[in-house]
Each structure stands twice: as structure tokens, then as C-alpha cells.
Amino acid sequence: MILSIYIITNVAAYFLQERFLFKPEKLPPDFQFKYPNQKSVEHNLYVGDDIRINGVHFSIPEPKGVVLYLKGNSRSIKGWGKFAVDFTRLGFDVVMVDYRGFGKSIGLRRSEKDIKHDMQKVYDVLRSKVDEKYITIYGRSMGSGFATKLASNNNPRMLILESPYYSMTKMAKRYIPFMPASLILKYPLRTYKWIKYVTCPIKIIHGTKDKLIPFGSSLALSNINPKVTRLYSVIGGGHNDLYTHEEYHRMLEEVVKSEELASINPDETSLSFKRKAAKN
């Protein structure tokens, strides 16, 4: 009896997590991606038996680099592709991919480990064609965790996180409070753990009125690896509407064009005042 209850509970937990996290839009194999005023080429990457990751490369003449765009948990790159313009207008190519079971990507089995493996394979292919110093990893919402893990294992030019979560376990506890913590393990997505090991510049953009992933999540993340992290707040921005704020686009332009910050010499700034006060 106890075993049966345990099995039923775990099965229920599995489907709750899947429904909570993933809202895929599936596309037919013959679907043709079309983006007005954007030059794009579709690609397929086979990462295992019956596992295919589908993506689109948005290109411009003489790019400054390339942005690997890891999207949120809904729909497919059919709809997400329109946001590539936010980077191509700034002089960067964009590679956008669908996770397993999304769009034209194929893969019946899906887990945190599987998706991390898939994204590393995508990065490996990109790295074979472009020097890492020209690769920027961008992760939005659910994609922010996978983007952070990818940056922690590699050496990209920059990591940009938009509306990131501290961990998916913490998110699940907020929205599924009745679920025992021991069962929320399929997708823990511990962004807070991986961000410690990122050595490239980290730029975080978050809306102050985000009701799905609170701004406090980014605030907490920005304090974990502060030497390389900068937090940008979009005043009044929600979770799905940052692109409607002109302020967001100005921030994104500053972020993408920025270089790694040089170390500050305390003796040349007001930081030295604190040291002198402490001595006195």
C-alpha cells in the first residue's frame, strides 16, 4: 500500500513538473521559418539516437560576434525568432534553438541532464566555427538556468540573463507549495550554484514588477558573484513585457556593446575614504 502511494505520488509529481515547466508548441517537419527583414538559415543537430535539436541562425554582414539565445519555456522559435532583431540590429548574429519536444526538435525523453547535454552540444558546434571570445550566451526565464550552467562550463565572452530564477526548486515551492521538496528534483535548475563558477562578465536584466519570477531573484543572484556581475532593473517591467519598454532596449544595447570592466584602484576613488575612516 505504502509503495503504491509512493509510486502514484512520484508519477503525479513528474507530470506536475512537466506541465509547470514546459508549454511547447510542436511544428510539422515541413514547416518553413519566415522572418521579415531577417536573413535566416535553419539547422538540425543530431545529439543522440532519435534526438534532434532544431535551430535557426540569423545572420548579418560582418557580425561582431554571435549570441546563443536560450529561450523561455513556452511555444517555439517560430514565435521567439522575432526577438533576434534585438541583437542583429546591434551587429550580432543570433543562433536560437528549440529544446527537445519543442518546435521541430525531436526527443521523447526530457530531463535537466538531457537538456544541459543538448545545449553543450550546440555550444560545441558553435565553438568549432566561432572563437569563444565572440560568443555571448543569453538566457531568458527558464533558459537562464541552462545558460548559466553553459557559461560555467565554458569561456564565452559574456552571459546575459533576462528575468532569471534563483532555482527552479524555489520557484516550484512558491507555485506548488503542497509538493514535498524531496519530489521536486527532476528539474532543480540551481542557477545560484552554477553562477559562482562563471568567470565571464554577467549582465542581469529584470523587471521590478515581475509577478512570475520576482525581481528579488535577480538581486540575490547578483550578490553571489558580484565581481563580474551587474544588475539592470527595468522599472515597472513585468515578466513578458520587457521588450515593450524603451528602457530595456537601451540597457540591452549597453550590455551587448560593453567590454569587461577593469579593476578599480581604491586609492583613486572615494573607496579610499572608507579605509581612512576605519583607520581613524
Give a verbal description of the structure:
This protein is an alpha/beta fold. The chain is 35% helix and 21% strand. It has 10 helices and 10 strands. An 8-stranded mixed β-sheet has the order 2-3-6-4-7-8-9-10, sandwiched between helices. It has a two-stranded parallel ribbon with strand order 1-5. Helix 4 (112-129) packs across helix 5 (142-153). The longest helix is centred in the N-terminal third of the chain and has 20 residues, at 2-21. It is globular and about 70 Å long. 35% of the residues are buried. The model is unreliable at 2-12 (pLDDT under 50).
List the helices and strands and how they pair.
Blueprint: H1 2-21, E1 23-24, E2 39-48, E3 51-59, E4 65-70, E5 74-75, H2 77-80, H3 85-88, E6 92-97, H4 112-129, E7 135-140, H5 142-153, E8 158-162, H6 168-175, H7 191-194, E9 202-207, H8 215-222, E10 229-234, H9 246-257, H10 271-279
Helix pairs in contact: 4-5
Q: Give the neighbour order of strands across the main sheet.
A: 2-3-6-4-7-8-9-10
| SSE order | HEEEEEHHEHEHEHHEHEHH
Strands, total number: 10
Helix content percent band? 25-40%
**Uncertain spans, ≥5 residues at pLDDT below 50?**
2-12
Q: Give the overall silhouette.
A: globular
Number of helices: 10
| Strand content bin | 15-25%
Oligomer: single chain
> End-to-end span in angstroms?
71 Å
Kindly report the average pLDDT value: 84
The major sheet is characterized as:
8 strands, mixed
Find the structural class using helix and strand composition: alpha/beta
- What's the gyration radius in Å? 20 Å
